[in-house]
Amino acid sequence: MGCGVSSAHQFLAYSIEKPDPQENNQGQTNVRRNVKFKDEFLMIPQPGITTLQEMVKNSVAKYGNQPCLGKYEGDNFKFMSYNQVNEEAMHLGSGMSNLSLVKEVQEYQHYKLKLVGVFSKNRREWMILDWANMLYGYTMVPFYDTLGPESIPFILDQTNIETMFISGEATKSLLQCKEKYKLKNLVLLDSISDQQISDLKNKGYQLFKYEDVVENGKKSVVQLTQVLPASIFTLCYTSGTTGNPKGAMLSHDNLISAIASTQQTDAGINSNDVHISYLPLPHVMERLIILTMLFTGASIGFYRGDPNLLKEDIQKLRPTIFASVPRLYNKFYDGIKAKINEVTGFKKSFAERAIRVKLENLRSDAKYTSGLYDKAFQGVRDLFGGRCRLMVTGSAPIQQEVIDFLKIAACCPILEGYGQTESTALSFSTAAWDPKSAHLGGPAANTEFKLVDVPDMNYTSLDVIDGVKTPRGEICLRGPGVFKGYYKDPEKTAEAIDAAGWLHTGDIGLITEKGGVKIIDRKKNIFKLQQGEYIAPEKIEAIYNRVQGVAETFIYGDSLKSQIVAIIVPQKEFVEKYAAEKQIQGDFEQLCKNKDIINLFLKNINEYGRANKLNSLEIAKLIYLEPQSLQTFGCLTSTLKLQRHHAKQVFASQIEQLYKNQA
């Protein structure tokens, strides 16, 4: 991937109309597809690879002695080769079979599944288990390491899994659960205390060590199982922003088409690439990135499981590809900007000129590097290990000012991707040639899309903005990446996928001039105020989170009230600095209750909100400053998305008090 693009690229397009004669276009746009794959979907990455089992066999044959999976040992990362990983995966899968740890569960629809659970942070053993499942046709049920004692029993009950691979840390969460259902075998990935062993045995669990299962399989290797493209590879339980998690059934051909499509983006992953795995592996975005790395013979290093050590892990591994989510990129952005603001004199004027010139070059010609001005950002490049050639962002929309700044500071493209668990992570991607940011780009090679009118929210396919036809509506997807349905939940499946096979995402988008898509709203997370006006909290939160001094936001509205309420987590340094300047006394908690500081946030929200075209109902006049992160209260999912139903319960008394004070 080059550093910049020629001006000829300004004529490139992201999608092309592919009208479907069976589609009634009333109330929706024409169907659109990837420009390069307008006539047929891309199903496989190369001939002969139709399942993940065929994929890993191919990778072992091509890249056998190259480094595959690494973990931090001593003072650096140590890697197992593709051959070594494959051998351990065969022994692990054989041991699971020999010890009868995985049994076929009762048939669901036409699927007969051999389910196995895994409950751990990202680690090498996690992926070796995933590899073993590819070889032996087992279906993985990953548990987010942040799941609480309510969600765990729900998944155990729905899946009837009998065996779970589990880290020492996760056993604590398991012990808090009242019900164990059919779960009886725990394969321990770590050593645990005698007390924990005793507690687990008292609850009726049979314990195995990971090493012992591998050793058992080594003595008697089992023949590989035939895996079909339609075989279910994983039940990917959504972390649940509302209610109980749902188990999305993803098949081998779902993942294979997504891998093929990833390789058609500007990511260009190859055998020289190195990736650091720290985003939760149960999330399909991280899973897809790793599987694509395995297809190409690249190397994956797993962080040590401690966010505080991630910076050091990055420095040691020196990844060439870095993937993250907007919430974390925002923290990088704030930290880097704060350091630049501390610089004085010539260095400051050079940094300011570097930012201005590089932003101009980025926004006109999609240029990411500049011989002279890159020097101003050497510290940023070092922050990501010094050899990062590509970054990826997904999971939620990102602000243009954040992504543009990070592109010029990291001196490399940042591709924006969009997909859901239900569409196997990749449905849209931006391109390196595009100077514009903060949109989704065009459809993946395995995807077609259309926008469907949402009259209640005044979004239609006939919309005109500033004199230009700009179709808007709910993004609907179709193609080989769309999942097979929710496990044992035909009702929710029917809500998600209509009779014509369209996945309804719940996201509101508009079609850009180059045939890409930009998310502008969310259909599901809207509420009405007393006046009958619809409020889209996610859009407002994204803007508030860029307000000076704001770290996190939760917006709530009551249909019986005329105003929204904002729970704001302020940046501690910002508050303490302002308090010192104004000689306001107190610790951080006391400062968050100070009227002058609350008024400062109201003023900042008002000014920034109006500058970003929020209307008067979207600018909060009732705010509560919460000194602790929303994550502390369990209000965020593992992918750092807000769980509104939970946040509403956590802050019920504060919300009630704010509305009372208004009265």
From TrEMBL:
The scientific name of the source species is: Paramecium sonneborni
Alphabetized UniProt keyword annotations: ATP-binding, Nucleotide-binding
Q: In this protein, which residues make up the domain named AMP-dependent synthetase/ligase?
A: 58-487
One term of GO molecular function: long-chain fatty acid-CoA ligase activity
Keyword Repeat on entry: no
Put simply, this protein is called: AMP-dependent synthetase/ligase domain-containing protein
One Gene Ontology CC term in the entry:
membrane
Q: Which InterPro entries match?
A: AMP-binding_CS (IPR020845), AMP-dep_synth/lig_dom (IPR000873)
Carries keyword ATP-binding? yes
